[in-house]
Amino acid sequence: MQSATADPVGTLDVALAHAARLLAQDPSLAEEQAREILKVLPDHPHALRLLGEALRRQGETEAAEAAYLRSVKGSVKDPELVAAANALVEDRLAEAEHALRAILKARPTDVAAIRMLAETGMRMGRYEEAEKLLARCVELAPGFTPARHNYATVLYRHNKPVEAIGQLDRLLADDPRNPAYLNLKAAALGRIGEYEGAIALYAEVLKDHPRHPKTWMSYGHALKTVGRQADSIEAYRRSLALTPELGEAWWSLANLKTVKFSAEDVAAMQAQLARTDIGDEDRFHLHFALGKALEDEGRFEESFRHYAEGNALRRRDLGYEADETTTHVRRSKALFTPGFFAERAGQGCQAPDAIFIVGLPRSGSTLVEQILSSHSQVEGTQELPDIIAMARRLGGLAKKSSAGRYPDVLAELSPEDLRALGEEYLERASVHRKLGRPFFIDKMPNNWAHLGLIQLALPNARIVDARRHPLGCGFSGFKQHFARGQGFTYDLTDIGRYYADYVELMAHFDAILPGRVHRVIYEQMVTDPEAETRRLLDYCGLPFEAACLRFYENDRAVRTASSEQVRKPIFTDAADHWRNYDIWLGPLKAALGPVLDSYPEAPAHQPPPCTEGEQQ
Asked: Which fold, 322-597?
């Protein structure tokens, strides 16, 4: 046995290397060697990690965990980890990643380094890698609470809310009043449509922490979703009373679409914008909120200036590339031909359960969803991220690049692959289906770009294209701040190009699969809702039900920006709001090109239709 005590300085590295070699040959001897070292240096992190691994290989999981956790405490004195931590704190992510990978190459069970590398990955948007690292971390050290909290967070961000809740329940078993755990669980419950549970958790946190402004704001979001508008307004106001510069809370009030700001509110927002010590996120939210407030007052030039400034500030950090969308459309048109689909007829999952509503945000899609979900056989869910996630996985897409193998990779999939994709989608969506109805709605608008995948995996699903006048839809998107996923909406030229690309791909599918997609023209729906609703129900194979015309009586939760508008009847007596901004929409018109002139006209005997507060 190599003794670490004979010459502590000269032989420590040799003893550690010897223990590491023994791991694969005889874990019990490795354990013994590690304990010898720890007699001299009780908190040596490397020796503790070796002890943990030796114990784990012998099935001593609890003792192994204890050793790993002791190694975490010892890591605060490790100069390599301290240097990596400093790089991470100072946002030198590439440097931190390089250092941590080097550490883990030498010490693969260093749970502190694993956690730090996962955090680096999360900041770089590599959620899948971070998830795997943190799963390994809590496997090695189940009691490493901060790592488990990180694991729950990355699961939530990676659109795995059920799994996140499982991890949070383990944390809450030991710390049931922890506000961070409760807040994250509430957010995860909201992600799967368990809004009442989320509301209860937010209320519980606020009993103990009534001066936490962002919890009040999150509470307001959940209350808004279930239709408790007065309570949501009160929650947003409580948030602002605590932190008047919190731009997202001001925008949340504006985003209700029914709140009219007072002169005092406008002055308060302007005062916050005049400060030099607020961050960009608060600043662009304040610009969007002021744009809405001044629009309501008829001060359109000032309103547009705020919308434009908020959009420019937001777009700066998004990195949206319009050429990538155009390239995707070109590649899709080349791949998807009548022959391509004819060769794959009868393949995929044959279940007819899903109804996809696609198009652009602010196109009337929430109105269509509310009408359909008022039918006794249809359940409305939300904008599900699953088709997009599956497409990204298939193509191996980098975060900011479309230079992957998708959609071309779809040509390589076998009948078994296609069926499995459809079944996977339905399994992913099942957590959102609460009512036992035969059909459900996925209202992710961006799914228009994945019609080929939908057709291959779920050939019997219904696809509804919700379309609105390009200027009305485009400007409505421009004045809307989206929580995530709509990077094209922060520049008028980007919006025009995106709309034109969308129309081009939809026209392609109309040509190669005639009648496959049902189109709802927003202006026609609000002008003659009964006729358009009957057409929609016929396409979905559903009998007419009068409740679909009384969609505003439906008390289901609605998460989108139109949550309050779809709780009111349709109005057609107001001019389109975009017309007040027509003189500033030149870049949008230029980018739309011929698409603008080819949009269907509204019936001539009606005034230009819209709904109270823009019912989208």
From this structure: Rossmann fold (3.40.50)
